Amino acid sequence: ERVYCIAMNTKNEIISFSQIAQGGINACSFDTKELFKVILLCNANKFILIHNHPSGDSTPSSNDYQMTERIKEASKIMGIDFLDHIVVAQNGYTSCYNIT
């Protein structure tokens, strides 16, 4: 799995597309500080998180939902808009942002 961040400015223009982490074939963990470091260094005020599922199934795992909730809370504190967390795979893509 790989985790990416699309960071944007106030006009929704992409100002950074960065790989945040790389893991194994069924998991990838990263420190939330690394995500926000990328966002802050490019002076973005909103972002989308994306990661892949090499299994081919885009269904988010319970860990995906837990990570999304942690990042939602951190982004509120930081005053940065977290727009979506998308899981991509061979069968398509799924947002795990609005499901709690």
What's the topology here?
Elements: E1 2-8, E2 14-22, H1 32-41, E3 46-52, H2 62-78, E4 81-89, E5 92-95
Parallel strand pairs: 3-4
Antiparallel strand pairs: 1-2, 1-3, 4-5
Summarize the structure.
The protein is an alpha+beta fold and 100 residues long. It contains two helices and five strands, in the order ββαβαββ.
Q: What would the keywords be for this entry?
A:
single chain; 100 residues; alpha+beta; five-stranded mixed sheet; 2 helices; globular
Describe the model.
27% of the residues lie in helices and 36% in strands. It is an alpha+beta fold. A 5-stranded mixed beta sheet has the order 2-1-3-4-5, with helices on one face. It is globular, with a radius of gyration of 13 Å. The model has no long low-confidence stretch (mean pLDDT 91).
Strand order of the largest sheet: 2-1-3-4-5
**Unreliable residue runs:** none
| Ends distance | 22 Å
Contiguous helical run count: 2
**How much of the residues is beta strand, in percent?**
35-45%
Structural class designation: alpha+beta
Q: Mean pLDDT across all residues, rounded?
A: 91
Helix content: 25-40%
Number of strands: 5
Query: Largest sheet, described in full?
Result: 5 strands, mixed
Multimerization state: single chain
Shape: globular
| Radius of gyration using CA atoms only | 13 Å
The helix/strand order is: EEHEHEE
